[in-house]
Amino acid sequence: MSLALPPNQMIPKLFRIDKIKRELSDTFTIEMRPEAGAGFAFQAGQFNMLYVFGVGEVPISISGDPADPSLLIHTIRSVGSVTQAMGEMQAGDAIGVRGPYGSAWPVESAYGEDLVIVAGGVGLAPLRPAIYQALAQREKFGKVLILYGARTPEDILFKKELEKWRGRFDVDVHVTVDRATGHWGGNVGVVTNLVAKGGFDRRHTTAFVCGPEMMMRYSVQALEKRGVAPNKINISMERNMKCGVRQCGHCQWGPHFVCNDGPVFRYADVASLFPVWEL
Ligand SMILES: Cc1cc2nc3c(=O)[nH]c(=O)nc-3n(C[C@H](O)[C@H](O)[C@H](O)COP(=O)(O)OP(=O)(O)OC[C@H]3O[C@@H](n4cnc5c(N)ncnc54)[C@H](O)[C@@H]3O)c2cc1C
Ligand code: FES
Fold first, then answer.
1. Which residues make Cβ contacts (< 8 Å) with residue 278, sequence separation at least 6?
2. What pLDDT digit, counting tens, does each position of 70-87 carry?
3. Beta strands in 25-157 (DSSP E)
4. How much distance in Å is there from the Cα of 260 to the middle of ligand 1?
């Protein structure tokens, strides 16, 4: 693999915010359009480096529909300086965008199989493009299961879309919360409980898992326990990033660079690293 950077790879392109939608108390979705040129092609699972001028640059997965490149969509949780600054932006403001970078959810390799999507918290955002892609070609899969866990009912991301998907007769959507509040009458407990219930053909299942690292560990364990092969389980990893293009080493994870070899990894390829904390 060549380490030479294509020209202008580090120069962000200017995008303008079309709309900001508040999803949860700490989470919002930004829809953007390029200042020049049309559209932004990407694959489900890829991310961009988003630059808030004068504040900093952060990696954020794309949460829109790969079939609609006219809008660039990201869903972001405010945790620190850059993401908080993004949350205070308004329609018309400019954001610098580098990308798309990284590997994609292997949606096509799941053709003919049951597809199990396991998401925790804001981890549903990087999976939403894969869900759009799978539902647009629903006939290519066996069962499609979406298993989602949030902290409380108030923390359920994309609630309306989850309800819409659940309203279809060809998708199984199960939602659970760690802690029930208000009038919640649904599942209570961790998302791994939903995996343990099964409902998919373990010999012919591909799984996509995204969420906090702890949730992914237990979800992978539960999938393996149900008999899903490690080479059919895919996870999306987060690490600190600076360049996003395999140059700075900030995102190194064992022999892998998360920005370039990931963020989506086949679990079989990283199984020895995955249980090691702080690597
Ligand atoms: C490939 C990739 C894709 C990502 N996709 C998304 C996405 O779709 N949506 C999204 O909201 N975030 C996503 N992230 C995480 C996002 O990049 C970080 O939350 C962001 O860099 C934090 O920057 P900051 O300047 O706002 O906070 P900082 O000032 O860097 O951090 C502030 C505090 O938040 C903590 N923190 C930093 N990152 C995280 C994190 N990931 N989770 C919890 N606490 C954190 C820090 O330890 C620190 O205490 C992704 C990360 C990667 C590597
Ligand atoms: S972020 Fe620089 S090498 Fe991955």
1. none
2. 999 999 999 999 999 999
3. 27-34, 47-52, 56-61, 72-77, 94-101, 114-120, 144-150
4. 18
- The residue with tokens 């480096």 is 49
pLDDT at 22: 97
Task: For 155-182, write each residue's pLDDT tens digit.
Answer: 999 999 999 999 999 999 999 999 999 8
Nearest atom within ligand 1 for CA of residue 59: 17
Q: Are 181 and 154 in contact (CB under 8 A)?
A: yes
Kind plus residue range of the DSSP H or E element containing 176: strand 172-177
**Residues contacting ligand 1 via CB (< 6 Å):** 47, 56, 58-61, 75-77, 79-83, 122, 125-126, 238-239, 241, 263
The amino acid at 266: R
Whole-number Å distance, alpha carbon 238 to ligand 1 midpoint, is 8
Name, in order, each residue with C-beta under 8 angstroms of 147's C-beta and a sequence gap of 6 or more: 116, 117, 118, 119, 174, 176, 191, 194, 195
